[in-house]
Write a structure and sequence with these properties.
- By secondary structure, the protein is of the alpha/beta class.
- It has two domains: about 5-180 and about 350-370, 3-Layer(aba) Sandwich (Rossmann fold); about 190-340, Rossmann fold (3-Layer(aba) Sandwich).
- The strands form two sheets. A seven-stranded parallel β-sheet has the order 3-2-1-4-5-6-7, sandwiched between helices. Strands 10-9-8-11-12-13 form a six-stranded parallel β-sheet, sandwiched between helices.
- The chain has 13 helices and 13 strands.
- Helices cover about 40% and strands about 15% of the residues.
- It has helices at about 10-25, 50-55, 75-95, 105-115, 135-145, 155-160, 190-195, 220-230, 250-255, 270-280, 290-295, 325-340, 355-365, and strands spanning about 5-10, 30-40, 60-65, 100, 120-125, 150, 170, 205-210, 235-240, 265, 285, 305, 320.
- One of its GO terms (molecular function) is hydrolase activity, hydrolyzing O-glycosyl compounds.
- One of its GO terms (biological process) is UDP-N-acetylglucosamine metabolic process.
- This is UDP-N-acetylglucosamine 2-epimerase (Hydrolyzing).
- It comes from Sphingomonas gei.
């Protein structure tokens, strides 16, 4: 019997990490995949990235429009309520055998709440990880609602078990974001620099800086400090606009002040393929994206991780952590540029998460007792 899987996606980030795995699931003879698309995917201000999903040929089982330009925590919470109502309707209509969720965003929490009330088994990817910001309790909340866990590392698996999850339901699969990185075809630094109008002989930084809910009021000033420190180190900067969380607008405004500077190129969105190409050739990454914590080590790219957004998360050796002040960022940039590229090594897995996940989804037990969840301690 073919199992029907629904994956919920609300941002370019989660979809990019999962695209190769979703394609593997869709191609599995024992699985049928549908995507429920919401959030930033449907908003032209954030690149209308649902078009990427459509071009990939993946089946879209439902769309849930929601207001995503939330400048406050209250607006973010109301967005979760909108998604909860929409997801409940779609899950009732589609009747999936299980719901697949990634990470720690509000749409994933809404999906977990809807699914558990409809007696639909939940599989959670990237549970058991820490960050020390609002993302961490949301991630753990999803884990407590989930019935199976696909952890990225042994450390995350052990933490889930200490949280009371049954060991037999927690499997290490690695990070989906590593799938295909090492062997994907890539353009040269010279080609990418030429396309951006950069000098390939001078330092190039890939910048991704997102707001932290608890520190939303200082997000714009922190972005300005980042840009100033990068300029002082003569870095050319490819900067992606942030996600739609509280504080995001002030980051966008700070970045806009640099538009027109030939050394700073600001883009709304890069496809996963192009983003990875830049990650592979940039002299460093800077900001607070999980891609710097997880994927960048596969290329040995130095990372200056700014502020608390990835606090306490398991690191690879290429990450330099700094507070969000101009002086501290400058110190981190100097160390990263002096270090150069690291030997590629990644604690987040073997790059085969797509195979592990699709095989588990097709074979794991889904009998009624799976839904009778209780803490194992």
């Amino acid at each position: 019997m073919i199992r029907k899987i629904l994956y919920v996606s609300g941002t370019r980030a989660d979809y990019g990490l999962m695209e190769a795995t979703l394609q593997r699931i869709a191609a599995h003879p024992g699985l049928e995949l549908g995507l429920v698309v919401t959030g930033m995917h449907l908003d032209p201000r954030y690149g209308a990235t649902i078009e990427e999903i459509e071009r990939a040929g993946l089946h879209i089982a439902g769309r849930i429009p929601s207001e995503v330009a939330g400048s406050t925590g209250a607006e973010m919470a109301r967005g979760i309520a909108t998604m909860l109502a929409g997801l409940t309707t779609i899950f009732e209509r589609e009747v999936p055998d299980l719901v697949l969720l990634l990470g720690d965003r509000g749409e994933m929490l809404a999906a977990a709440i809807a699914a558990i009330h409809l007696n639909i088994p939940i599989v959670h990817i990237h549970g058991g990880e820490r960050s020390g910001t609002v993302d961490e309790p949301v991630r753990h909340a999803i884990s407590k609602l989930a019935h199976y866990h696909f952890a990225a590392t042994d450390e995350a698996r052990e933490r889930l078990i200490r949280m009371g999850e049954e060991p037999a339901r927690v499997t290490v699969v690695g990070a989906p974001g590593l799938v295909g990185l090492a062997d994907s075809p890539r353009r040269t630094r010279e080609a990418l620099a030429g396309e951006a109008g950069f000098d390939p002989t001078r330092p190039i930084a890939l910048m991704v800086y997102h707001p932290v809910l608890q520190d939303a009021g200082s997000a714009g000033a922190e972005t300005a400090a980042l840009l100033a420190a990068l300029a002082a180190h003569d870095c050319q900067v490819l900067a992606l606009l942030p996600n739609a969380d509280a504080g995001g607008q002030s980051i966008r405004e700070a970045l806009e002040t640099a538009r027109g500077n030939k050394r700073v190129k600001i883009v709304t969105h890069l496809s996963r393929r192009i983003f990875i190409e830049w990650m592979a050739v940039a002299d460093l990454m800077v900001g607070n994206s999980s891609s710097g914590i997880i994927e960048a080590a596969t290329f040995g790219t130095p990372v200056v991780n700014v502020g608390p957004r990835q606090n306490l998360r398991q690191r690879n050796g290429n990450v330099i952590d700094v507070p969000p002040s101009e002086a501290d960022i400058a110190t981190g940039l100097q160390a990263a540029l002096a270090a150069g590229r690291y030997v590629p090594a990644n604690v987040y897995g073997d790059g085969l998460a797509d195979q592990h996940i699709s095989n588990l989804l097709a074979t794991m037990a889904l009998h009624p007792d799976v839904l009778r969840k209780s803490n194992a301690f």
